[in-house]
Every structure is written in C-alpha cells, then in structure tokens.
From TrEMBL:
Residues 134-201 form the Connexin cysteine-rich domain. The keyword Nucleotide-binding does not apply. This is Gap junction protein. GO terms for biological process: cell-cell signaling. Belongs to the connexin family. The gene is Gjb7. PROSITE patterns: CONNEXINS_2.
Length: 219
C-alpha cells in the first residue's frame, strides 16, 4: 500500500492546525504511520502461514484462524489510520473553497483563507469530533473482535471440521503484544490531543465572543 497520499494530506492540513493539532500530526506521522510501515507491517505479514494447529485435518487450521482473527490486525490498523486522517480533508476542501470563491469574485473575500474563524472553525471542530469518534470506535472494535488488547500464545479451537478441541499457536505473540500496546497507547494519546484541541478552540472563541459583546455593551 502507498501511504504518500496520506502523508501529503497530513502535511496539507498541518498548515491550518493549531499548536496542539501540529503535535497530533507529528504523533500520527512518526509514531503511527512510520512505525506501521517500518515494523508492524512486517510482523503480521505472514501471520496466517505462521499460525499452526496440532492437527492436520484439512480445513481445520483455516477455520480456526478465521475464527480468532476475523479481521487482520494490520489491515484494521491501516483502515483506522485512513479513517482518522480523512476528516482533515474537510478542512483542506473548505480552505480550497474559500480560495476559489475569492478567485471567482475577482477580489479578496478573506484576509487569510486558512484562518480558523467562522465557517472554517466549524468545519475544523467537526473534523476533530470525527477524528475522536473514529479513534474510539476502532478501539472498541479491536477490544470486541479480539476479546481484549492481548495476543495469546495458545488458543483452543473446536470448530468443525476440527474433529475435537485442538491447540493452535500464534507466532511471535510477545512481539505482537508489544506493538499492540504501543499502537493502542498512541491512539489514546491522539484522543487526548483531539479533545484538548477541541476544548482549547471552544474556550478561545467563547472568550473572544464574550469580549466582543462586552466591548459593544460598553460602547
């Protein structure tokens, strides 16, 4: 999979972010995207081939693997990265809309098209809410699909066509669990950063609106 588009998207959205938003972009790019490409992808690359059961019954091993891993960890992480980055497109499109609108009217309608105010602020807040929502949904999905954030060494399977309860072994469970904890931790960190930025922007512009009203009343 080529991640160039995602990298360009994050770089483009970074221009319109606050300080907290830039930290979020750095965390996603360095601690999630690069770790995924450089290490995690290779660890799960042959997970099906390295999944072994102590029986050679045709179809048993495949059925057991499908039962315990209905969706590959690595593909689910890839989907999570795409989904939590996609809301940044809303901000990029809104800024492009402002710039095109100014060009269409042959005059400068906005002093700075990328400044967070008015409609762009609402779009930015919506993107933060969507990012946070996607992060939470995927964490819950991980937990439900794999019965917690763990990678067991041994799983017992009694699904047909297995003739009885068989023992199946997952390769490199400790290494996989370390990366699982790391990626879950970075996901939680991104949630905290998104909520912090959301609170900061709401507080900042609430104070700004209050001061405007106060000055009008004084005048």
């Amino acid at each position: 999979m080529s991640w160039r588009f995602l990298r360009d998207l994050l770089s483009g959205a970074n221009k319109y972010s606050t300080g907290i938003g830039r930290i979020w972009v750095a965390v996603v790019f360095i601690f999630r995207l690069l770790v995924y490409i450089a290490a995690a992808e290779n660890i799960w690359k042959y997970e099906h081939d390295e999944f072994e059961c102590n029986i050679k019954q045709p179809g048993c091993e495949n059925v057991c693997f499908d039962h315990f891993f209905p969706i590959s960890h690595i593909r689910l992480w890839a989907l999570q990265l795409i989904m939590v980055s996609a809301p940044s497109l809303l901000v990029v499109f809104h800024v492009a809309y402002r710039e095109n609108r100014g060009t269409h009217h042959n005059r400068k309608l906005y002093k700075r098209p990328g400044e967070l105010d008015g409609g762009l602020l609402c779009t930015y807040l919506i993107s933060l809410i969507l990012k946070t929502g996607f992060e939470i949904v995927f964490l819950v999905l991980f937990y439900k699909l794999y019965n917690g954030f763990k990678v067991p060494r041994l799983v017992k399977c009694d699904i047909s066509p297995c003739p009885n309860t068989v023992d199946c072994y997952i390769s490199k469970p400790t290494e996989k669990m370390i990366f699982l904890y790391f990626l879950v931790a970075t996901s939680c960190l991104c949630i905290v950063l998104n909520l912090s930025e959301l609170s900061y922007l709401i507080f900042k512009y609430s104070i700004k609106c209050y001061l405007k009203r106060y000055i009008k009343k004084r005048q």
